[in-house]
């Protein structure tokens, strides 16, 4: 440290210049001496503060607060798990990514699972994996599997009947399956917009409608929609995906209001990026597979953490949950509070990201 910078910290230094050339040395000596005294005083003060903290009630109080908070969190976690123990939970898109992790987390919490997907072999493999897992003290149940494509409305009616036959009723429906999209609006075939809407919106809507009457009869049930932060804000080159997720948010918000009188819960979960195969499986403007692991996806949250957050949201009967980092979460507020700024940010993002025929 430059000793001259210490001058403001040495209010009591007395300056006396020595005779001739000795003046500077004397001054420097004085400054260093005062600096040492100040440092000693500061460490003495620090030691006294620490003594006070440890010898009085502050430290036990702090430790007590941390302990109570941890205990509260643990109790909440146990209560959450208890909520889904023996509950019949249906998960769509269970063959991959978030759906697969939800299957693991809900299975470990003791739920009776009905795993849905298009790939029967992948569902069977997951069932075998879950049956073999022993890392839980809770009694677990062998899952059922139901294979169907969400873009096929006829198949959904049959699948709903099959789902109801598994355990006789459904407690929790997790509409998780979905696909993403990359493309410019001007280049995108309308069939691609339809396919994304069929998978992400009409499929979950049809399945929910098919299972709802039995929930209403029992006056019990919980419908979860895995939406996206893109159900709250729209980003360039994701038109079909963002539209399908905005529609999802709107539909399930309406549903929540309508079924409250039947004691049915509705939770919309809006995650930011998650490390899954979503970008690999995304469709492009001409309907072909995008097939690229985007950096944003690769650096996203871990699907097991998001699955635990989904379980917590179900246990706490949350109505709307955003599971995203600070920037996307703030962007949601910006879209409402300063729309012009938000739109210009998105336009500049579009200018930067635009690549002819590839987004
Ligand atoms: N990953 C992310 O960054 C984010 C994901 N989400 C949402 O999370 C959900 C799960 O996606 P994620 O796990 O990330 O992606 P994955 O691609 O890993 O998994 C998607 C799942 O949906 C299934 N699926 C796709 N199309 C259909 C269909 N037509 N009929 C039935 N099942 C279908 C897939 O089945 P199959 O194996 O047969 O293809 C697969 O099981 C989606 O709704 C997505 O929008 C939300 C925010 C961020
Ligand atoms: C006052 C300060 C405000 C700062 C706001 C800055 C604006 C930042 C823009 C952020 C855009 C975030 C986009 C997030 C997208 C996202 O998380 O999507 C989740 C998905 O569903 C992923 O799907 P994809 O197919 O796009 O990978």
Automatic annotation (TrEMBL):
GO terms for biological process: lipid metabolic process. SUPFAM superfamilies: NAD(P)-binding Rossmann-fold domains. Residues 87-267 form the Ketoreductase domain. Keywords: Membrane, NAD, NADP, Oxidoreductase, Transmembrane, Transmembrane helix. It holds the Pfam family adh_short. It comes from the Eukaryota. InterPro entries: KR_dom, NAD(P)-bd_dom_sf, Sc_DH/Rdtase_CS, SDR_fam. The chain crosses the membrane at residues 52-75. The keyword GTP-binding does not apply. CDD domains: 11beta-HSD1_like_SDR_c. GO terms for cellular component: cytoplasm; membrane. GO terms for molecular function: oxidoreductase activity, acting on the CH-OH group of donors, NAD or NADP as acceptor. The keyword NADP applies. PROSITE patterns: ADH_SHORT (PS00061). Belongs to the short-chain dehydrogenases/reductases (SDR) family. Putative oxidoreductase. This is Dehydrogenase/reductase SDR family member 7B. It comes from Balaenoptera musculus. The lineage of its organism: Eukaryota, Metazoa, Chordata, Craniata, Vertebrata.
